[in-house]
Design goal:
This protein has 489 residues and is mainly alpha-helical. 63% of the residues lie in helices and 5% in strands. The protein has 2 domains: 6-382, no CATH class; 384-446, no CATH class. It contains 22 helices and 10 strands. Helix 6 packs parallel to helix 19 and helix 8 (165-181) runs antiparallel to helix 10 (190-208). The relative contact order is 0.19.
């Protein structure tokens, strides 16, 4: 199924307990409205991350639309998802910048990672999910995601925050309050709302308090400057193509971003599982296709200078809220993103985002990326009393966060995320091979997980701890919703 959607009922919003399937659609006006919600949901992160990585945000938005269409075609419309800018590459790209790499170096390294991700997708499709799960158990995957996020702390603390510490503090506070005080859809876009708040606050301070003296990103000395520089906006055209950049390739730079592939495999698997649960369909047979399609999307985007892509949890949240899983809405969102990318003036406004605003946002975002690794550990009941999990992962995490470097020659070295990932992945498997029998057996009997670590050892792995994790907010929310609908049928 590609474009042959069946009209759901009378084309109106589904009643409680019902949902619009991926191969169905509402009336076109309602479908366009849902598509617009998907645009808003993906928008904040899709242009914030390119800004942080020093890439063209306008081009990233346009290529996200193209990548989404390609993704939907490859998965044959079975996995409704939007491909926005991936956060997993931010750490590696920051490391490339620290070593003097330019935009072409960044997108070249990302392109190679996209090829690797596509190959992993083919492997999953041919050999099955268990093969990949044996290589990347939850303990290891969580460690890699955690060190990718926390490795970025110096970027937020030393590059963005000092450009305007008070705006950064206000933006950070706004994001925290908005994510808690707002409800539903609005809380999901708290990062976007925080960016708008910080942008407007900076404009107001420029008008009332005047210029600020600070060190801009990439500079070495403090200068007097406005918080928001809109000179590029007036010079930009209303309509036109974004600036394209051809990739260049370097082994050193490629190794810095390859660990992101591990995070993307885990991310895609989680999202496909989530969509499968919501649509009540077994999507495991198309997981390989989804990972392959994500890799292809990343290759397409980076081949012209765009950002890496990944399936977006934000848009999965929109589907959960609306109960509309129609891929037609995603095609609408993709077309809107492509059209936005053809407005250079819009891109200029985005690129004028003050560094202080990014400082307030990145301290939250980078921490969230890192804590996603802890979430993987928690959901899989990883037991850190077992030295197999504790020792090698502890070493890999500190190497990644502390940017420890291993120098081989004058022209080749491994450090930070790349070295930390290698230590975590290889170290875990070596530790498991060398550990006493009782430690290996403990992996198979971790509390609350029938078959032990399950996916880590190639088993199906089923939680068996008296139901779902009682601390899961999503589970509690779902339970309360069911209770309300039972009381008020």
């Amino acid at each position: 199924m590609a474009f042959g959607w069946k009209l759901y009922g009378d084309g109106k919003t589904p009643p409680p307990g019902e949902a619009v399937a991926p191969d169905e659609r509402l009336s076109w006006p309602l479908t366009i409205g849902i598509g617009a919600q998907h645009v808003v949901a993906m928008f904040g992160a899709t242009f914030v991350f390119p800004l942080i990585m020093g890439l063209d945000a306008n081009l990233a938005i346009m290529m996200s639309g193209i990548a989404t269409i390609v993704f939907l075609l490859i998965v044959q419309g079975k996995v409704p998802s939007y491909l926005g800018t991936s956060a997993a590459f931010v750490g590696g790209v920051a490391a490339i910048s620290a070593q003097g790499g330019g935009v072409s170096d960044k997108v070249g390294a990302i392109l190679v990672a996209g090829v690797v991700l596509a190959l992993v997708g083919i492997l999953i499709q041919v050999a099955g999910v268990r093969v990949v799960n044996k290589v990347l158990p939850p303990a290891v995957t969580g460690a890699v995601v955690l060190l990718i996020g926390f490795n970025l702390a110096p970027v937020a603390a030393q590059t963005y925050w000092p450009q305007d510490q008070w705006v950064a503090l206000a933006t950070m506070a706004f994001v925290i309050v908005a994510s808690l005080a707002l409800r539903g859809f609005w809380s999901r876009i708290s990062i976007l709302l925080g960016l708008v708040f910080g942008y407007l606050l900076s404009l107001m301070l420029d008008a009332t308090a005047g210029p600020i003296t600070s060190v801009l990103g990439g500079a070495t000395e403090a200068t007097v400057h406005d918080r928001v520089d809109l000179s590029g906006v007036s010079a930009a055209d209303w309509f036109g193509l974004p600036d394209f950049t051809a990739p260049s390739f370097s082994l050193n730079f490629t190794l810095l971003v390859l660990p992101a592939v591990i995070a993307l495999v885990a991310e895609n698997a989680g999202h496909v599982k989530a969509v499968g649960e919501m649509t009540k369909r077994d999507l495991d047979p198309v997981l390989g296709r989804a990972v392959f399609a994500d890799g292809v999307g990343t290759v397409l985007a980076s081949s012209v200078g765009g950002s890496p892509t990944t399936t977006y949890a934000e848009n999965i949240g929109v589907m959960a809220a609306t109960r509309v899983y129609s891929t037609a809405a995603y095609y609408v969102a993709a077309v809107v993103a492509i059209l936005l990318g053809l407005v250079p003036k819009f891109g200029a406004v985005v690129n004028a985002t003050p560094g202080g605003v990014l400082g307030g946002i990145t301290v939250v975002l980078y921490g969230m990326i890192g804590l996603l690794g802890a979430k993987i550990w928690k959901e899989n009941r990883v037991d850190f009393a077992n030295p197999i999990n504790l020792v090698p992962l502890a070493a890999g995490i500190i190497i990644g966060i502390g940017n420890v470097t291993l120098v081989f020659t004058d022209n080749f070295s491994l450090g930070g995320i790349a070295l930390g990932t290698i230590v975590a992945v290889v170290g875990w498997h070596v530790a498991r091979a060398l550990a006493p029998q009782e430690m290996r057996a403990a992996l198979m009997s971790e509390d609350g997980f029938r078959h032990g670590t399950g996916p880590a050892l190639g088993n199906a792995g089923v939680h068996d701890a008296g139901g779902a994790d009682p601390s899961s907010l999503d589970q509690q929310t779902a339970t309360r919703t069911i209770e309300r609908e039972t009381r008020n049928p």
